[in-house]
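Re-running the complex after MR caught last week's input typo. The corrected sequence lines follow. Everything else is unchanged.
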Amino acid sequence: MIENLLHAAALVLTVKVLVALFCGVLVGYFVGAMPGLTSSIGMALLIPFTFGLDPIPAIVMLVSIYMASDYAGGIPAILVNAPGQPASAVTAFDGFPMCNQGKSGLALNLAIMASGAGALISLVLLVISAQLMAAAALAFGPAEYFALAIVGLSLIGVLSAGSTLKAIIGLLFGLTVVTIGIDPIRGTERFVVHPYLIDGIPFLPALIGLFALSEVFVMIETANDRIDRVRHASSASHSLRTLVPYRRTVLRSSLIGYFIGVIPGAGASIASLVSYGVAKKLSPTGASFGTGNPEGIIASEAANNASVSGALAPLLSLGIPGSASAAVLIGGLTIQGLQPGPLLFADNPEIPFSIFIGLLVGLPVMLLIGLFGARLWVQITRIPRPVIATVVASICMLGSYAASNDTFEMMVTAAFGVIGYVLRRCDIHPAPIVLALVLGEMLEANLRRAMILANDNFLSVISHPITAVLILVSILVLASPLFGRKSAVA
Amino acid sequence: MGNQDMALTKHSKENNRTGDPGRVEPRLRLPGRAVDIGVCLALAAMGIWFVAEALGMPSGREAFAPGTFPIIAGGALALLSLLQLGLSVAGRGTLPMVEVQRPLWLVIGMAMMLLFPPAVERLGYYPVAVVWVPAFGWIAGIRSPLGLITATLIVLGLGKFVFEMLLGTPLP
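Corrected-run output:
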C-alpha cells in the first residue's frame, strides 16, 4: 500500500495535476456557495472539460469539486441562512443564529475546520476500507454482483428524499430507460426506434439533463425570488485551536458521516442530520442546539464532509455509487476508459491511490481558501440567478455536444432536462434515476451471466451464501418503511 | 378541487417576492393530485409500451432472454405507477398544490432548449448562439442589456476558447 501511495504521490505532485486540483477546488467552492447548484451539477457540468485531460488530472479535478463544494456549502448557510448544498441546511440551524449574535467569524472557522477534520479522518478510513472491500470483492462472481446491485438499488429507493414509492418509481424509470440499445449479453437490438439509439441513451447527456438542465428550469421559475444578501460578513477567524474542546464531537461525527456515506442513497444530508441529532442528544449543552451552539455546526459539517469519502468507498471498491455525486464520478471514470470496482485496484492502482493523494493534497488548499476567502465566496450569492441559468444552460448544451461531437447528444440533454423537471415537480427526484442508469446494466448483465452459469436455475443463483445474505438485506430494507409505519402507529 | 386551483393567479406584490419591484408575474397553481395522476399515467404508459415491445422480442433457449429484463422493469414501472395513481385518486398521502412560477417563460425556455440542437445542426453554433443566448437570457429573467451582453460574451468565449481551442472540440 505504501508503495502505491508513494507512486500516486509522484503522479499527483505535478504541475498539471495540481493545476487541475486547484481549478476543481475553485469550481467546487463556486457551486458549493451558490444556492441551487450542487456538487453533482458542478461535476456533471465539468466532465466535458476533462475529455482532453489524462485520467489522473481529470479524476483529481472531479473529486476536488466534490470535496470543495461540501466545504463551501456551509459558508452561505452561516452568513445568509441560504445553504449552498442541501446537506448544509443543518449547518444553518446554529450557524445563522451565531452570525446574528455577531460571531460569524467563529462560526465560519468552526465550519471550515470541522469540515477539514471530518475529511481527514474519513480519508484515513477510506484508504483502509476501500482496499479491504476491493480485496473481498475480488472473490465475487456475477451472482454476488447482481445481489450487490439489488442492495444498492433498494437502499437508494428507501433512503432517498421524499416518498419511498416515488423514489422506487424513479429507479424503475431509470432501469427501463437503460434497456434501450444493444442488449449486453446477446447483442439483440432493444427499443431502437431511431438509429442514434443503437448504443443506448448516452449516459453523460442524460446526466447533465437530469441534474443541471432541470435546475436551469427551476432557476427560470424562481428568477424573481429575492435571495438575502450578506451585509456584514466578517472573515473566518484563523485560529487552529477552536476545534480542540470539541474533539469528541468531531471524531464521532466523522465516523457517523463516513459510515452513512458508505450506504448507497443515504448521502450527506442524512449524515449531517443524524450526526446533529446524536450530538444534540449526547451534548451537555444539547438544549441550546438551534440557538447558536458551536457543537451543532461541528456535528453537521464534520459529518457531511466525511460522507464524501464514505461515498467513494463502495464506488472505488465495488463500482456502486454511494451518492448522486459519486454516480456522476462514475461517468467521469468511464469516459476515461476506467471501470470502477475491485479490478480498478488490481489493474489501475494509480487511479484510486491518486484520488486518495488528491484528497490529501487538496485538504490544505480547501482549508486556506475557506478560511481566507469566505467573504469572497459569499459574494457569489450576488450573481443574479438568470445569468447563472443562461450560462449553465449553454454549458449543458456545449458539454453534451463535446461528449461525441454530435447534436443528438444535445437533444438527449434537452429532453432529459424537461423530463427531469416534470418528474421533480411530481416529487420524483433525479438522483434515483441516475443511480439506476449506472446500476441497471450491472444488474441485468450480471443476473443473466449468473443464470447462464447456473443453467437457468434462479434458485441456484440466489442460494450462493453471499448472494442470499445480500438479497435478504435488500428485502429487509424494502420492507423497513412498513415496519416504521407500524411502530409509528403503535 | 375548485376552479380557482387551476386558474392563473396574480399575486400581490408582497407575496410575489419579486426581485424587481413593480413586476408582478402570473403563477400557475395546479392540484398536486392532478399532476401526480398525469405523470403516473405517462409513466404507466411508458412501462406498458416497453413490456409490449419486449414481448415481441426473439427469445432463445435461455430462461433470461433479451426481453425479460425490460418486461420486469417496464412491468414494475407500470404497476407501481398505477399504484401511485390509485393512491392519488383515493386521496392518500399529502399532495400539496404545485405552484409553477413564471409558467409562460418556463414553457418558452423549455421549447428553446429543445429547438437549440436542430438549429445548431442547420445553421452552426455561433450564428445560433448569438441570437439564442440573449433570447434565453431574457426568458430566464435578465433585463439589463449589460447582463444580456455579458452572458452572451461568456457563452461565446467558452465555446471558442475553452471548447474549441483548449479542448479541441470543433463546434458545428
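None of the earlier attempt is carried over here. Confidence is low (pLDDT under 50) at residues 1-19 of chain B. Chain B has two domains: 3-100, 102-166.
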